[in-house]
Amino acid sequence: MLKFHQIKVNKDELSLTNVLQAGQAFRWVFNEKENHYTTTMKVTESNKYFIVVLSQPADDLIEFTSPDLSLDPEHLRSHLERYFRLDVSLNNLLLNEWIPKDHRFKTISAHGVRILAQEPWETLISFICSSNNNIARITKMCHSLCTNYGEEVGVFDGQKFFSFPSSDVIAERATETALRDLGFGYRAKYIIETAKKVSKVRADGNYENDTALFRKLQSSFSYIEMREHLMGYTGVGPKVADCVCLMGLGMDDVVPVDVHVSRIAKRDYQIIANNKNISTLKKLYADLPITRKKINLELDHIRLELYNKWGLYAGWAQGVLFSKEVGKVSGATSSGEIKKRAIVQVDIDIKEETATRTTFDRVSNKHRKNIKREQI
DNA sequence: GGACGGCCTGGGTT
DNA sequence: AAACCCAGGCCGT
């Protein structure tokens, strides 16, 4: 019998359903009978993956464990606290950041919807798969990559669990044809080309793993440069790149703008780019030294306006609103079924937390002027 | 330089 | 039943 350990956290701060099954992470398997979630993840500094099991048995409690007895529970606890970003209080953001800036949040509960700190490489591949696709199939694809190219980590609930394959493993062992046969469709080519390029960049820089590479890039790049770099991979446009920045690199103020966010922005905030907005953005990007893929300036205007409106945790605010708008589909269950879900109403209470940094603070000086100009 | 098809697939709807 | 639509975009022309 597994021994579960506890994390005291309220459901309005963290709802496992709303965070793990709402199109942000695609590799958590829900066991309906036992009411717990299972995945594999890196927990330690090494590249080893562990099976991790979570449940939310009460409104003020998360329970966690791993069947791997070599894993120190306290180490897993601190890892999960980082993964769920428990240093950030949703209720504080709501009360002190979003409600004062946006009256729309007065009547909204965050429902425990928060942004995860996921592995950048896995986030990149997951969201390459997300283009013109639905959550059920994205989930299926992510699992398919693991079962076909990952390493078996262990068995739980009578089901085998695998690691997420690194860029070099995919580059060496997978082919476009093989991925097409596995049902990836036109994304097969994107994944192969991206894996080859990432593993090459990695090898050239002698990085130990994919995470190390992306963290290093992040440390020397501004947000704009990081997005630029990500958009250099096939199948990665501004939306996918922004998802990686937000959920894989912890850039909390980045708002990935897709069709839904675009609709919300126009319908609820009347954000519509005029000619001046567009020409300003055009100049902004023309001045940047990096040649870029074309981006939709109308959507980019929405991104900036929502950042201006919501502030340092704009990406989180988007998550809350987005979940309210379209979060109705769940991911994998043990039986392989995909089910509809309902968002649970929760109450609001207060905690201490202070927002500290912005992605735009990290823009290098030669770009700052341009960015600032656009922030006005 | 920007607008516009076309794209794999699977589940749902007509 | 067959046809059509749609899903948290991106690529090529």
Automatic annotation (TrEMBL):
UniProt organism field: Naumovozyma dairenensis (strain ATCC 10597 / BCRC 20456 / CBS 421 / NBRC 0211 / NRRL Y-12639) (Saccharomyces dairenensis)
Keywords: DNA damage, DNA repair, Glycosidase, Hydrolase, Lyase, Multifunctional enzyme
Sequence ranges assigned to domain HhH-GPD in this UniProt record: 129-304
Any GO BP: base-excision repair, AP site formation
Enzyme class (EC, first level): lyase
Record keyword Hydrolase present: yes
Catalytic activity of the protein: 2'-deoxyribonucleotide-(2'-deoxyribose 5'-phosphate)-2'-deoxyribonucleotide-DNA = a 3'-end 2'-deoxyribonucleotide-(2,3-dehydro-2,3-deoxyribose 5'-phosphate)-DNA + a 5'-end 5'-phospho-2'-deoxyribonucleoside-DNA + H(+)
GO cellular component: mitochondrion; nucleus
Name of the protein this chain belongs to: DNA-(apurinic or apyrimidinic site) lyase
EC number, UniProt record: 4.2.99.18
SMART domains: ENDO3c
CDD domains to which the protein is assigned, alphabetical: ENDO3c
Gene name of the encoded protein: NDAI0D04790
Family: Belongs to the type-1 OGG1 family.
